[in-house]
Amino acid sequence: MTALLRTLMAALTAAALVSIVAPSQPTPAAAAACAVDPATPKRQLRAMWISSVANIDWPSRTGLSVAAQQAEFRAWLDLAVAKRMNAVVVQVRPTADAFWPSSYEPWSQWLTGTQGGNPGYDPLAFMVAEAHARNLEFHAWFNPYRIANHDDPSRLISSHPARRNPGWRFAYGGKLYYNPGIPEVRDFIEDAIMDAVSRYDVDGVHLDDYFYPYPVSGQAIPDAAAYAQYGGSFSNVGDWRRENVNLLVRELDQRIHAAKSHVSFGISPFGIWRNNGTDPLGSRTSGLQSYDAIYADSRKWVKQGWVDYLAPQIYWHMGFATAPYEVLTAWWSDVVRGTGVQLVVGQAAYRAGASGQDAAWQDPAELSDHLTDNRQHPEVAGDIFFSAKDVRADRIGAFTRVVNAHYTRPALLPARGTAAAPAAPSITSATRGSNGVQLAWTGSATSYAVYRVDGSPTSADPCFFADARNLVGTTRQKTFTDTGAGGSAYTYYVAALNRTHQESAPSAGKAVGQGGGGAFSVVIDNAGPGFAAGSAWGTSTYSPQLHGADYRFAEPVAASDPAWFSAAVPSAGDYRVEVWHPADPGYNSATPYIVAASGGNRTVTLDQRTGGGAWRSLGTYRLDAGTYNVVGVSRWTATTGYVIADAVRITRL
After folding, report:
1. Which of 71, 335, 500, 642 has the fewest C-beta atoms under 10 angstroms from its C-beta?
2. Spatial distance between the Cα atoms of 237 and 224, rounded to a whole number of angstroms
3. What is the pTM of this model?
4. Does this entry carry the keyword Hydrolase (predicted)?
């Protein structure tokens, strides 16, 4: 995407409707009685676009070895998992070419640097397998009409369909496009896309915002001959062009679901359909109108049910005069309401903290505030971020803010369609190990959700499953290790999910007693009697990620002045030491923690800008018996930002 068009719009995919429903399917009255936390929704699409055109994200450049390309892609998926995402939208047909061995179109130039050059493996098969191994949905992103980011047909490989059929294409604005008004072109594009759908285990088909080309001043789209030949029933060329795009959308919807009913079909249109100054049905905006400028009647696609989801690129900040974010989320929510089409929001991660962007985008909270605004609209089922490299860059800590405020727990994908839920699985074992609680179960499903509840309840309360507070992970395996488990007594439940994410009733609970070796685990909070700190340590409730009622903070200084957490260690032995702290871009990147281990103090540094709102391990240490200061938080660090002391957990292994 060019910088200009990225500023105007966005780029892509994916799926789903917010549903807070317990896996045991409680009655509506029971579900309504559950107090759910809006910050930990049960279901939410969380995805990022991985762009291949011009090597925006992946591969990072052309000509990489197979091993290097694959390592890069695995790293993108690992990033998605680390940010608690559950899907990726990957560009597999960027410029009328293919990231798989297609009989319709040549290998993409963005793989090897040469159009038609065999990369030495099947990237699409590899990508789908790697995504599913991490239980990430894989949405294949296709650009329908773009042939090349130049206008010289001779630069295309000689076997390219656009060279063999010169009447199919036109040049406009320095680029080459397939002509959407030619029926043979539409059939060909659909066939090329369906080749991937039929041969690969993709979860979704995704189109971006490029339909007819964005307007170029002083230039007219050269399709008069096609209009004369095929547009006889239309009194103006605009209506004819919109119908050409509508036919592609409607026919793709039909063909995808006829081939594989579980595959979702979604489009990520430009964020404005029409302004209400032009059309009373439009939004209270005054920007470019995709209905008129690129002939994309995205509102009609929703009302006709031709898509499973829509992901409008609402790439503008809150309060932006031309197109306010909050106005457009409300408008699109109204459009999809009652249609069965799911709404997700395309988010401009590329703008957060980037030079040259409006002042609003220099605020680390702007992107997070978008997701907070989404909570007002139950129609909003999630978000897709453009693009992967901007998620990784995390300029000004903006994406860390998103994770800390909205993605503290995993989330199931929104359910699609009306398929029956699978049968409940059965937990066969739950045992403590050195790295957590290890679970195994039997069942027959696509994936599984694992829940952990404190204590040993006599029955499964439906409210245990009403949001994600007790959800510890999802997997496509029939085993799971809960590495976040402490030494307390827990009860685990597992639910099964089918391909479209309908969830079974939960399994029978499986109890796990306290940790062995004396069954000792203790939490020391900064507000409790085991905590001590000097007068330089302030008290704050600023972050919602706090443990207990508040937490302590202090400026770094060239002196230790530690805040200490004292505990009564029952006997000498090996103990896991964990800490809890809120995270913020203004906190310290190398906070020193002191562990009073047998044989002498050990110091571990943690980056408190990230990873907050959860237990973080400092490691396993041999501790002596007795009551003493076990863990300290030191102020002696050369890095800037507050050091934080909140809570410590010590567990006998």
Report:
1. 71
2. 9
3. 0.78
4. no
- Cα–Cα nearest to 216, from 56, 5, 11, 1: 5
What 3-state class would DSSP assign to 287? coil
pLDDT tens digits, one per residue of 288-303: 999 999 999 999 999 9
Enter the DSSP assignment of 347. Answer: E
CA dist 438 and 481 (Å) reads 4
The confidence score (pLDDT) of residue 484 equals: 84
Please classify residue 458 by burial: count the beta carbons closer than 10 Å to its beta carbon, then call 0-12 exposed, 13-18 middle and 19+ buried: exposed
Query: Edge-to-edge, what's the strand order for the sheet holding 591-597?
Result: 531-532, 563-569, 626-633, 591-597, 600-606
Which residues neighbour 131 within 8 Å (Cβ) at sequence distance 6 or greater? 77, 88, 137, 138
Q: What is the pLDDT of residues 66-103, one digit of tens each?
A: 999 999 999 999 999 999 999 999 999 999 999 999 99
Burial class from Cβ neighbours inside 10 Å (0-12, 13-18, 19+) for residue 627 reads exposed
Residues in the chain: 653
pLDDT in tens, 565-608: 999 888 888 889 999 999 999 999 999 999 999 988 999 999 99
CATH 3.40.50.300 fits 45-148+181-407, yes or no: no
Identify whether the C-beta of residue 178 lies closer than 8 Å to the C-beta of residue 147.
yes
How many angstroms separate the CA atoms of 132 and 129, rounded? 5
- Was domain 521-652 assigned CATH 2.30.110.10? no
The token pair at 80 is 């998605």
Closest CA to 328 of 317, 337, 340: 317
Phi first, then psi, for residue 4 (nearest 5°) are: -60, -45
Question: 426-512: which CATH topology?
Answer: Immunoglobulin-like (2.60.40)
Give the residue extent of every domain in the chain. 45-148+181-407, 426-512, 521-652
Contact call for residues 189 and 123 (beta carbons, < 8 A): no
Structure tokens belonging to residue 509? 């609970």
* Residue from 440, 521, 432, 437 nearest 475 by CA: 440
Cis? peptide before 429, omega within 30° of 0: no
Which residues fall within 8 angstroms of residue 179, CB to CB, at 6 or more apart?
Answer: 168, 169, 170, 185, 223, 226
Could you tell me if 482 and 439 are in contact, meaning their C-beta atoms sit under 8 angstroms apart? yes
Distance CA 549, CA 69 (A): 47
Structure tokens at 298: 């995205």
H helix or E strand, kind and range, residue 82: helix 66-82
